[in-house]
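User: Fold this; tokens only.

Assistant: Input:
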Amino acid sequence: MSETYCGKSCDECKYREAFGCPGCSEGPGAPYSGNCNLASCCRERGHDRCRMCLDRGACEMLKNRDGMPEERARAAAERAEREAHNREKSAFLGKWLWAMFLLIIPSIIGEVLSILPMPLELIGLIISAAASIAYGAILLVLSKESTDYMIAGICFFGSAVLMLAGGVLLIMEHVIAGLLILLASMIPAFFKDFKEYAAHSQVLEGIDDELAEKWRKLIFLYVASLIGTIFGTIVPFIGPLIMLPASIATLIVDILKLVYLHHTAVAFREYGI
């Protein structure tokens, strides 16, 4: 009979055959992909059995040994359930985040065409608008995994509506009203990026914690660049000096966003396989 550290009989254990457990003293002491605290304690203290320990009388682990197999089996089932959920989530997120990343291509094409003479300028504006609408729609689709995606999508379309209204007022020569509305559109635009970065970080937890932390740090850099841009615009004399590093920081944020978005999409696509 294989002997356990705690003195329980392996022959009486109903989990032995189901898990192919050779016994904690002959095996690794971790038949359920976790670790037996009693087995670990014995090994750390250099004991062959719990009965050799002078603290065994007050040991809560030893007193609760009968419930340990069930607890470890429950923990293994919970881990398996989380793993299945993460794989399902990863397949969903990987598909849509990859589509979001690919939208960069038509966006760039649209921006290039928009600076060319008509009718290429009009075509470029249409392509850019279509890519932007698709981007916002994907944010709303992703809301099933994080409410921050939903908030980002709502803010995206809210900002777009205000920008359109402001542009129309400027065309109609209502300059002050148009500029005020365009200025107001910056508020939902800020929350759109803020919430999008936060959502990416949230869904990555447990999948790629290092990348999740990078998204959180990007939020701080984004806020800092925005504050610098605002101060650089309204502060006299030293404004241009502030605008230069703020503009560089904004460029860095845009580049890192593309890099992190690609890495995030790849991480989920690979995890979901």
